[in-house]
Target: MHD domain-containing protein
Amino acid sequence: MSASGLYFLDLKGKVLISRNYRGEIEMNRIEKFMSLIMEKEEEGCLSPIIKYNDVTFMWIKYNNLYIVASTKKNANIALVFAFLHKIVSVLVDYLKELEEESIRDNFVLIYELLDEFMDFGYPQTTDAKILQQYITQESHKMEVAPRPPMAVTNAVSWRSEGIKYRKNEVFLDVIESVNLLANASGNVLRSEIVGSIKMRVYLTGMPELRLGLNDKVLFESTGRGKSKSVELEDVKFHQCVRLSRFENDRTISFIPPDGEFELMSYRLNTHVKPLIWIESVIERHPHSRVAYMIKARSQFKRRSTANNVEIVIPVPHDADSPKFKTSIGSVKYAPEQDAIIWSIKSFPGGKEFLMRAHFGLPSVISEETEGKPPIQVKFEIPYFTTSGIQVRYLKIIEKSGYQALPWVRYITQNGDYQLRTN
Model:
């Protein structure tokens, strides 16, 4: 990654705290940062990466702070920004609120953390759980420096030794978000599934876990090509997964961190049939009123149910005197969004519901001239995945041979889910 310096600045550009890791950039160069920001803002070309002579500044803004990394080298920009966001999340863990005042109150603690985060410009320990074992809130008052936990010197830097639980359990959630754009006649213009596997691990010792999915590449290589399988794209793993093992035989093998983490994320660029389809009939009576008839239909199997469904229907910004009639759920007018929101707590599969809305429309301007925003739908369907991904097994191997309970849940929810109207 190779960042030379790290700076925390207030909104006026004054340096609150900084660390020079490589000594190749004069620390007073940061004094130019704020004027560069203002210059770029005036030109309308503000960027998170600003070059000044031979120095590149990469920055993020958090509350009333600018957090800036500087480099002279051709650094991995994505890694620098991931590192800056990681610093924020660790400091929030420690300080609860990260802002100018909390920085001023905790100089000693923050300097200790900055020294652990990075060594000579290269990221080192950035796991809050590991850092908290030997840099405590009162660490600047301690007289004896404690010995770093094994995890810092160990190959498994994300898990420490000696973890014990009375009840050994693993919770695994497969969460899929559906991004979809369809036109008024029901044709899907764009669709994809973005998935993630999140885990909560409460296991004693140093267990090894092996996860088996109905992965298409694996099924084809083992002669089960015709079985139901899923072709995963853009797969990204947590650092604990042994990538060489996955590349060899598609086995997802890992020693997990303790507690909650995201094991992997994936994407499927696939044609998705709209899970909840909305038909809208809009009757406009110029300068007097507008009437809506909205029909919502669930297009998934009857044994599944969508929870907390919200259908957001745009209305003209000058609509007033709303009246609603619906066969299920509740409807409210949200003038700050120029929309009506139809909420349905529980929407079973294979059902169709109707809602009517009526507004006065005092405007003398025809709404036809405006671009009509699409209807948006929010929902969550438990025990269901759109892609058909399945957890075939989750094996837990630990030298003491204890029994552990794995719990698996599937959830499908809306991502950017939009349906255009006539």
In short: Confidence is low (pLDDT under 50) at residues 139-146.
